[in-house]
Amino acid sequence: MNYKVTKKQNNSDRCLVCGTKNKFSLNTRFYEVENGQLTCTFRTEDWHQSYPGRTHGGISAAVLDELIGRAVCIEEPDCWGVTVELNMKYKKPVPTEANLKGIAHITRNTRKIFEGIGQILLPDGSVAVEATGKYMKMPVSQISDGDFVNSEWYLLEEENDPAEIDL
């Protein structure tokens, strides 16, 4: 089903998941969609492998950790999450050299803690990996050194940004 993109979220310079200046990054792009969920698009490469043709499970965990952790930003744009717990269920192999999607939403949100679930979807739409996570809310000034928000956190508008995403 196609969902209208309502907002694109920021990228950073050096992040393994979304970094635009990290040669090993997945170059993930995050989009808020009309059904209140957060989705992402990314591409795995051969250097993300564990076994030949298979993406390392830690890469899948990193994507889902960031995806669930960012989902709270839909309702709380200035909220930053620090992972307390992440639980993974690997259902199918995630291929290398593949264009993939992820989707997540928040299941519980309190003053200090939020929880969510996420999935990595294969090109055929089937679920490869599922995760649940719990995160502590913190201001970015307590999470990172320096002036991260002003120096390397930005909206990357691109010609090929989708107006809709099929999930």
Blueprint of the fold:
Blueprint: E1 2-8, E2 11-12, E3 29-33, E4 38-44, H1 57-71, E5 80-90, E6 98-109, E7 113-121, E8 127-138, H2 140-143, H3 148-152, E9 153-154, E10 164-166
Antiparallel strand pairs: 1-3, 1-10, 2-9, 3-4, 4-6, 5-8, 6-7, 7-8
Structure summary:
The protein is mostly beta strands. It has helices at residues 57-71, 140-143, 148-152, and strands spanning 2-8, 11-12, 29-33, 38-44, 80-90, 98-109, 113-121, 127-138, 153-154, 164-166.
Unreliable sequence segments: none
Strand fraction: 35-45%
Average predicted local confidence, pLDDT: 94
| Helix residue percentage | 10-25%
Coarse shape:
globular
Question: Termini distance?
Answer: 5 Å
What's the helix count? Answer: 3
Strand order of the largest sheet: 5-8-7-6-4-3-1-10
Radius of gyration, CA atoms, in whole angstroms: 15 Å
Number of strands: 10
Structural class: mainly beta
Describe the main β-sheet briefly.
8 strands, antiparallel
Order of helices and strands: EEEEHEEEEHHEE
Summarize the structure in words.
The protein has helices at residues 57-71, 140-143, 148-152; strands at 2-8, 11-12, 29-33, 38-44, 80-90, 98-109, 113-121, 127-138, 153-154, 164-166. The protein is mainly beta and 167 residues long. The strands form two sheets. The chain has an eight-stranded antiparallel beta sheet. A two-stranded antiparallel sheet has the order 2-9. It is globular and about 40 Å long.
